[in-house]
Design brief:
The complex is a heterotrimer of chains A (265), B (544) and C (401). Chain A is an alpha/beta fold. Helices cover 26% and strands 29% of the residues of chain A. Helices cover 33% and strands 19% of the residues of chain B. The chains are: A alpha/beta (265), B alpha+beta (544), C alpha/beta (401). Chains B and C meet through helix 12 of B and helix 9 of C.
């Protein structure tokens, strides 16, 4: 059984700060990490892997050459091999162009996949769009926000516990399926030192645009249907008003008025 | 040379200094200032001052001296031995002296040095250095400082400040006053090894500006300090030899010593450190490992093997005893979300935690020597947790924090029933060759006494913290007695009664185990030489 | 492709400082771009010499003009025996109305469901010019396949220029699938919408965890689609005089179309909410003095529909469990509202809540560092203020309903 896990390398969001003057992100000291939700997806894939014999987990990412380090992490966390889909021509891709590129890469690298998993969203884009788009392009059913999953005994269907706004649903679909993973009750894994050393010996290959069965006009910015036309910082949060010496009654009313204004009551 | 003159600071109007008066008001509105992490209760004190700079601090000291009021100094209040807990009189919080002054390249020593005020906390310090974002310097307007900052930013290497006490919210001045240590002391030494200069204010409000390498004791073991009025203070050094382990018990004393070392680790008894110039180290990519082992003995064996292997370079080498892991496992089961780590393996009977250089992007990795060392003790690297990305390193660091926090929570719970209870933590260190013996002594005594305890800490420096958690007052008593026995044994083995926490107010009787009464008198005389009315930090190191 | 006019470039380096992706730098006295460029356009805006340009494809206005009308998907939810519109449906209806008015086009609401649908006329009262009602047994509960099929079919036939969905879990499941099927531009989680001089939908949304805002357009494809963040836009007041115009749309769906099967649905009672997910947090610190005050804080949290949390100090005192600890060694939270009661704002605490959208602080100490980040700070005694605040909130709530 072949499980493809699509992952993304993202900046460490908690490190990210915005320069208040230029309104752009301060790049010093911001490290790149494997998107945490991708780690949960890998965790689920690794569990399915260990529950069944002859299962392979393949991690795949579309990114610049340094996304290799995110793939190393995938290999440390249970992937058997990895594919880096990298080419200048992919630059400027929105979620559609990304999903299209990934679908072509999957068809090329793992044509006989049984299951595709992704994290529910990337913490930089926060769109959660690539999963459903990928499912649609490959004409597969989709189940998003999976907190737990397992295969049915005949291994032909997958059952997913999907998180909803007020509880959860148990959904089932016939493989192949696209499933996106949420955190659920998972705690992010920690590889052993052995895992770290072994990861660097596993198969990691690079696919370029020329290897894919896609026209150039479908890649990168050219192939994108949305365009970012501006990037700016949100309204700055400074210390605002500090009120001293108020009677408690007055203070209470001031706070209540603020809460009302900000629509918290 | 062994003579130094003080400098004056500008005048400040004492009446304009921000303060809170009256113990009732202080304890109602500023409860966090009453104590430090030791939770020792203060003796009611009537003044809480918040000086904004050296001038205001000097004005406070002069005024308090005139009124014969004792002064206790507080930094970040993260100490563990009550160093900033007042004994009546006044408490001065230095929290507003928290600016970075400059970053400069020292050509001779070929290192970057950062100059900052005493209340800057270590975490902020490191954040600024690592991100190379130093707003205080960037906004200071000084041409030279701005040029140096520019060059620092252009330096392609990354830097950090090595001393890493577990509580990184400690102020740098506090860490210098206590010669703080952390896990990295194993490779990089304690704070002392990284201090290149200090400004210290004496009880008379005058400043000594001391760079390292300029003032040395006379052959007769003396320093002379000239104050602004032309008075000559003769400072005679104690004649004891210090233990050759990591040590924070008693004043630093050695023949022909550097004057700066007298103040480092003096726990506020000799003066108030207002500014520190510290050296920085180039940052390497590292990987941290928690290696699980089957028993405490196996851990000690691995420590020996790793220490004896010169080609394996470790930054730190820390230990978690079997019962410490048990406690963590219990916490994981009760409250899995509070421990953001996978389950500790069932079979784990102890753990070592160490760190070494690692290149994440290298295509091939060779750690054969390390693997061999671990295998030779019967352990395996598949039985470990590894982390090299910043956030994963932070995760392991947070994991280390959970043990002392869990212990604190347990004690807090027990205190509800027995208010007199408190945690008992040892801070003893012995020379390398005595590690096994000391462990046997701890283990046998504690098991025989049937107390609840865990052990963890800087095993690389033979500095293991034994934490006893008494369940009632009689256990507290037995624990205290055992602690004294342990301390005496450590001294007998050539070690120290306080390897990193300092003496403060809580370990004074242990100091007596380590130094003869003559030597203690020499220390007291030293204090009186620099603080004639014994105004500063009453109760630290000496009684009264 | 980012085009750099070497003649115009004066190597001032402003582009370099504005680039979030380390993609452009001044080398050999001219700006040079590398592979990391995402074509976001930040440098183009900043260049004082107009030396930078991004060539973007233009689609003919004539083709685009065949698409007309603003559509919103009015998501329904189960209310006992019936299905009624979700709150977000009214929010995007109000936004849709504004956009439709600006364009001079019609606003339609699409509703999918079975015979349990109610309040359809309400959608017209809240601004829809008509409701396209798609009823079918198989639409009784949300499914990706069922709803994608129907919405795609309606859009293909009706050719709207804009389609909006609420960015609810279902909305975020559905919208990308429809977009992929029909090859449409889709922007997620918008917090602002507008129309520009070319009659294009201008979509603004947060990215990088809210650290930055991005403005996006879908120039070549129609309809332009977007999911809209709930609780950002206000619903309009109902106008019962507005005409009700409901069209029943015939739906073709078979069981085979729907490839996921619902085995079980479990609804959870308002359980102990996880603080990481709470939208409103009322947090207590050492300044609360004692467990009695803590109860008042808890009550305040309840009144606001939020959760109680606290600083390390009170966790160590045993007043609250560790699961409610906010800070360096506790949980990091980023709620819409964070009320810090008797919390000094030490760095270890702030690091766990500084990304909260709105922060209110009450503390006796005017110099407490928490005031540096609180939008509204009150220097005072929480013990006395909180009970009065609770009363005041109650009074306002009663007035509103």
């Amino acid at each position: 059984m072949k499980i493809v896990v699509c992952v993304k390398q993202v900046p460490e969001i908690t490190d990210v700060n915005v320069n208040p003057e230029t309104g752009t992100l301060i790049r010093e000291g911001v490290t790149s990490i494997l998107n945490p939700f991708c780690e949960y997806a890998l965790d689920h894939a690794a569990r399915l892997n260990s529950a069944y014999n002859e299962t392979e987990v393949i991690a795949i990412t579309m990114g610049p050459p340094q996304a290799k380090s995110a793939l190393y992490r995938c290999l440390e966390l249970g992937a058997d091999r990895a594919v880096l889909v990298s080419d200048r021509k992919f630059a400027g891709a929105d979620t559609w162009a990304t999903a299209l590129t990934l679908s072509a890469a999957i068809r090329q690298a793992v044509p006989d996949f049984n299951l595709i998993m992704l994290g529910k969203q990337a913490i930089d884009g926060d769109t959660a769009q690539v999963g459903p788009e990928l499912a649609e392009i490959l004409n597969l059913p989709q189940i998003m926000y999976g907190a737990e999953m397992h295969l049915t005994p005949n291994k032909k269907r997958i059952r997913v516990k999907q998180e909803t706004e007020n509880g959860y649903k148990i959904l089932e679909a016939r493989l192949p399926v696209v499933v996106s993973a949420s955190k659920g009750e998972l705690i992010r894994r920690v590889p052993s030192f052995q895992d770290v050393l072994t990861a660097r010996t596993k198969d990691l290959r690079v696919i370029a645009a020329a290897d894919l069965d896609l026209d150039e006009s479908e890649l990168g910015l050219q192939g994108s249907y949305t365009q970012v036309v501006n990037v700016f910082p949100p309204a700055q949060k400074h210390g605002g008003t500090k009120l001293e010496g108020l009677e408690p009654e007055v203070a209470a009313r001031k706070i209540a008025a603020y809460l009302r204004e900000e629509k918290f009551i | 040379m062994h003579e130094i003159s003080t400098q004056l600071v500008p005048f400040a109007d004492f009446n304009k200094i921000r303060r809170v008066e009256g113990f009732d008001r202080i304890s109602a509105e500023y409860p966090t200032y009453l104590t430090d992490e030791s939770k020792l209760s203060p003796e009611p004190f009537d003044y809480l001052f918040f000086p904004m700079d050296e001038a205001e601090l000097a004005a406070i000291l002069k005024q308090m001296s005139a009124q014969k009021i004792k002064v206790t100094i507080a930094g970040a209040r993260t100490g563990l031995v009550g160093g900033c807990v007042p004994r009546k009189g006044a408490l001065v919080s230095l929290e507003n002296l928290d600016r970075v002054k400059s970053i400069t390249w020292d050509h001779k020593a070929e290192e970057w040095r950062i100059q900052c005020q005493c209340a800057l906390d270590l975490r902020s310090l490191n954040d600024q250095i690592v991100s190379k974002n130093l707003p205080d310097v960037a906004n200071c307007g000084d041409r030279q400082a701005l040029d140096a900052l520019k060059r620092f930013k252009e330096d392609p290497a990354g830097y950090f400040y090595p001393p890493d006490p577990t509580e990184m919210s400690a102020s740098i001045g506090g860490t210098v006053a206590t010669n703080a240590s952390g896990a990295r002391t194993y490779r990089y030494g304690p704070t002392r090894d990284w201090v290149r200069g200090i400004r210290v204010m004496l009880s008379n409000g005058e400043i000594l500006s001391i760079p390292r390498g300029k003032y040395f004791a006379s052959p007769g073991g003396e320093f002379i300090v000239f104050d602004s009025k032309g008075n000559k203070l003769s400072v005679k050094l104690p004649t004891y030899r210090m233990p050759y382990t990591k040590n924070t018990a008693g004043f630093f004393a050695a023949p022909r010593m550097d004057l700066i070392d007298l103040f480092i680790g003096s726990e506020g008894c000799l003066g108030v450190i207002t500014e520190v110039t510290a050296a920085l180290l180039k940052r390497d990519e590292k990987i941290s490992l928690i290696q699980f082992l089957s028993s405490d003995e196996q851990a000690i064996e691995l420590v020996d093997t790793l220490r004896n292997n010169e080609r394996v370079q470790l930054d730190f080498l820390e230990f978690y005893s079997g019962n410490a892991l048990d406690l963590l496992q219990q916490r994981q089961v009760q409250d899995p979300k509070s421990v953001d780590m996978p389950l500790i393996p069932e079979h784990a009977g102890a753990a070592l935690f160490f760190e070494f250089s690692f290149d994440a992007m290298a295509d091939s990795l060779d750690y054969g020597l390390l693997e061999e060392a671990i295998n030779s003790c019967g352990a395996s690297i598949s039985d470990s947790w590894a982390a090299y990305e910043n956030r994963e390193l932070q995760r392991l660091k947070d994991f280390r924090h959970i043990l002392p926090e869990t212990i604190n929570a347990i004690i807090a719970e027990r205190k509800k029933q027995y208010p007199k209870l408190h945690k008992l933590g040892t801070d003893l260190a012995v020379p390398d060759e005595r590690l096994r013996d000391m462990w046997r002594i701890y283990y046998d005594a504690l098991e025989t006494a049937d107390l609840e305890w865990v052990a963890f800490g800087h095993i690389g420096n033979n500095h293991i913290h034994i934490n006893i958690m008494p369940r009632n007052e009689s256990e507290l008593q037995s624990g205290l007695e055992l602690y004294e026995q342990f301390a005496a044994k450590a001294v007998e083995f050539g070690g120290t009664v306080s390897a990193e926490h300092g003496i403060g107010k809580m370990k004074i009787k242990f100091l007596k185990l380590m130094y003869s009464s003559d030597h203690l008198k020499e220390m007291q005389a030293l204090k009186l030489a620099l603080d004639p009315s014994s105004m500063l930090n009453p109760g630290n190191i000496f009684c009264g | 492709m980012l085009k750099i006019d070497k003649n115009k470039c004066n190597a001032c380096g402003l582009c370099e400082t504005s680039c979030a992706f380390v993609a452009i730098a001044v080398e050999d006295d001219v700006a040079q771009v590398n592979d990391l460029c995402t074509l976001c356009g930040a440098c183009v805006n900043v260049c004082p010499q107009n030396a930078l340009a991004i060539k973007r494809q233009k689609v003919s206005i004539e083709e685009l003009s065949h698409y007309n009308g603003v559509f919103i998907w009015a998501e329904y939810e189960s209310r006992g025996e019936t299905h009624a519109p979700k709150k977000v449906a009214y929010e995007i209806l109000a936004q849709g109305r504004k956009l439709a008015d600006q364009l001079g086009e019609q606003l339609s609401a699409i509703v999918l469901g079975d015979e349990r649908l109610v309040d359809i006329d309400n959608l017209c009262h809240h601004g829809a010019d008509r409701v396209l009602c798609c009823r079918h047994d198989l639409l009784g509960r949300y499914t990706s396949d069922g709803f994608t099929n129907v919405i795609a079919a309606v859009i293909a036939k009706e050719k709207p220029s804009i389609v909006l969905y609420g960015a609810t879990p279902n909305g975020r499941d559905l919208a990308p699938r429809v977009a992929a099927r029909m090859r449409l531009g889709l922007t997620a989680d918008c917090t602002e919408l507008g129309i520009d001089e070319h009659r294009q939908l201008v979509q603004t949304r947060p990215a990088f965890g809210g650290n930055i805002m991005a403005t996006i357009i879908s120039p070549y494809t129609r309809p332009q689609t977007a999911t809209v963040r709930p609780n950002v836009f206000a619903a309009a007041e109902a106008d019962p005089t507005r005409p009700v115009n409901i069209e029943e749309v015939p739906v073709t769906l078979t069981k085979a179309n729907i490839r996921t099967r619902l085995i079980e649905e479990i609804l959870l009672d308002s359980e102990e909410e996880r603080i990481e997910e709470a939208k409103i947090i009322v947090s207590a610190g050492r300044g609360c003095q004692d467990p009695v005050t803590l109860d008042t804080v808890r009550e305040l949290a309840r009144k606001l529909g939020g959760v109680l949390a606290g600083s390390r100090a009170i966790v160590e005192l045993g007043w609250i469990p560790h699961s409610l600890q906010v800070g360096q060694s506790g949980t990091t939270v980023g709620p819409e509202l964070y009320m810090a009661i008797g919390i000094s704002g030490a760095v270890q605490h702030v690091v766990g809540m500084s990304s909260s959208k709105k922060i209110i602080a009450i503390n006796k100490d005017p110099n407490a560092p928490i005031f540096k980040i609180a939008e509204l700070g009150i220097v005072g005694d929480a013990l006395v203020i909180l009970p009065k605040l609770i009363d005041e909130i109650e009074r306002i709530k009663v007035r509103l309903h």
